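User: Good morning. I'm curious how 2-acetamido-2-deoxy-beta-D-glucopyranose would be positioned relative to this chain. Could you predict the structure with it bound?
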Amino acid sequence: MHKGSACAVNTAIIAVAAPLKVMNVALSFFLLYPLFLHLSPPVSAKPATFQQDFRVTWSDSHIRLVEGGQSVQLILDQHSGCGFTSKYKYMYGRVSMKIKLITGDSAGTVTAFYMNSDTDSIRDELDFEFLGNRSGQPYTVQTNVYAHGKGNREQRVNLWFDPSAEYHTYTIMWNHQQVVFYVDEVPIRVYKNNEARGIPYPKSQPMGVYSTLWEADDWATRGGLEKIDWNKAPFYANYKDFDIEGCQVPGPTPCASNPNNWWERAAYQKLSPAEAMKYYWVRRNHMIYDYCTDKLRYPISPPECMAGI
Ligand SMILES: *[C@@H]1O[C@H](CO)[C@@H](O)[C@H](O)[C@H]1NC(C)=O
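Assistant: Good morning! Here's the predicted structure, ligand included:
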């Protein structure tokens, strides 16, 4: 839809079923599947070659292609979890992927999709963490925002659908004005640029795109009360339709500051009225935790909490 400036990179890992997109399929995982490297290169204005957009960072024996090559499956068992990352980092833009989370009893598991500057003590990070649950109990999405090394901004929303039944789209939109986390078309979290009020904002470090699947039953489900049931292993999370539109780093330097990048346009600088309604609907009906209102942790609400969307 949005094909922005020349430096925007669109990375779609897509359905083999959509023949025109086949070429987009080559994502990097295919390093594991040399066969795919024989596909002819895409006829595309896009500079990216998909074989090079992602790589496995943790346990390639636990990541494989499924669904006829349409999607990537992450596996968690007693031996290991796994993870992958984009080969490049990006400065502003929008990253999305479709994920079908672990079916059945997923208590104690965490599936994450996040962006991270990978710069230790000053890191910027934008997190989606999907916290598993016992069968029939709601999956929880935890989001967090780190700016200049400071995080501790957790919010939690229980999903209003079963995220293991179908693929749903999870999106991080990041521009000079705001960071928005979307579940399908619903904005569940907004972090505005309030630098004018002295609140740090991620704006000077490019971030890579990451995903991991691991065991965290010491905290993930009901605060650690519900343990992982290894009898139910292996656990599977499936991914497809990766899309990265952003300024690749290293890349042409004016890209990130170009106000003509589509994600910088007025329509993306604040939520539309329709989006704001959805946002408030989530907060009213599905939010189960907000650091902003956790008086034990923050007797005085952090300043970004007072600033509105
Ligand atoms: C799991 O289910 C319980 C009971 O319905 C709920 O309180 C909790 O928020 C759910 N999510 C997690 C991650 O514990």
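The CA atoms of residues 18 and 70 lie 10 Å apart. The longest strand covers residues 82-100.
Let me know if you'd like a different ligand tried.
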